[in-house]
Amino acid sequence: MTEKDCSHHEDKRQRLYRRIFAALLALIIIILFIIFLVWIILRPTKPRFVLQDATLYSVNLSEPNMLTTTMQVTVSSRNPNERISISYEKLDIYASYRNQQITLPTTIPSTTQGHKEITVWSPFLNGESVPVSPYLSTALTEDQNAGLLLVNIKIQGKIRWKVGTWISGKYRLNVNCPGYISSGERNKGIEIGPSIKYQFVQVCHVDV
């Protein structure tokens, strides 16, 4: 075979590779365009969370700057989408006071939420002898004397969007639910034995 024939075969092989690459690239672009088009048409809306109530069992401050908190909260989530399901994965819920976590994270079971569906969770939140900063101890004492505590219930985790058999990648979910608790005024809540239940129906801030 002459050098000219080898060069001819090499050119044909390169043209074949270029055509295969162009075909694969075009296929990828078409798939991405279809996904983008479906996304634009469906327009997924982030879920809506509501803090419904909180049952406070104890908020005790001991020396030196140790805080013990026990409470149960009821949080609901609504999927506002008509054609998109939401899959909740690895959700953790905990209580925070003045931007400091005061209970251990409690894991919420993974679940899939259908169209316009509402899911309700009622986890217990516990923090036994959690060390807090001195300024937080002072602030807590002042708020308790004033009769009003602002405790934030926070949820962190990951969600996926589902349309038919198509499932999106994971998106980070951050939920912040402010709850004002009237300490020292039992008539502000419902007495349940030694505990007090406070009803809020407080809309939460949701970031996805």
From TrEMBL:
This is Protein YLS9. PANTHER family: LATE EMBRYOGENESIS ABUNDANT (LEA) HYDROXYPROLINE-RICH GLYCOPROTEIN FAMILY, OS05G0367900 PROTEIN. Pfam families: LEA_2. It comes from Tripterygium wilfordii. GO terms for biological process: defense response to other organism. It is a single-pass membrane protein. One of its GO terms (cellular component) is plasmodesma. Keywords: Membrane, Transmembrane, Transmembrane helix.
